[in-house]
Amino acid sequence: MTLAQKLNIDADGDRAPFDQVRLGILDLIANGELIVGERLPTVRALAADLHLAANTVARSYRELEAADVIETRGRLGSFVKAGPDDALATAQRATVAHVNALRELGFDDETIVSLVQRVTRGA
């Protein structure tokens, strides 16, 4: 499921769309659906998926960045920076780095999941 599918934007709602996007992303981080280190869609891609103006999503991202919740790494994109608690955020960041390293080695997701399951079972 994409980020746009997880966000519920109500064009007739009391809150402005940029605020709905911002709060929606915060909720997804709080409930663990977005994890620290996870890449967010580009402003333009998310705006297109949500049928919003790019400036609307850009404002949401700017406010999340100002609150130190996400970070933009130039051409690499925007990433979740902070999680609901420090220990979990550290674990999420380590997991993302580990999975990315295994993907760079050429392993597919099924193999990565299998490896992690074997390790957690003590095999």
Overall 3D form: elongated
> In the CATH hierarchy, what is the superfamily of the largest domain?
Winged helix-like DNA-binding domain superfamily/Winged helix DNA-binding domain
Beta content comes to: under 5%
Largest sheet geometry: 2 strands, antiparallel
Protein name: Regulatory protein GntR HTH
Domain HTH gntR-type: 15-83
Keywords: DNA-binding, Transcription, Transcription regulation
GO molecular function: DNA binding; DNA-binding transcription factor activity
Summarize the structure.
The chain is mostly helical and 123 residues long. 57% of the residues lie in helices and 5% in strands.
Q: How do the strands and helices of this protein lay out in sequence?
A:
Blueprint: H1 3-6, H2 17-30, H3 43-50, H4 54-66, E1 70-72, E2 78-80, H5 86-104, H6 109-120
Antiparallel strand pairs: 1-2
Helix pairs in contact: 2-4, 3-4
Please describe the structure with a list of short key phrases separated by commas or semicolons.
single chain; 123 residues; mainly alpha; Arc Repressor Mutant, subunit A; 2 domains; two-stranded antiparallel sheet; 2 strands; elongated
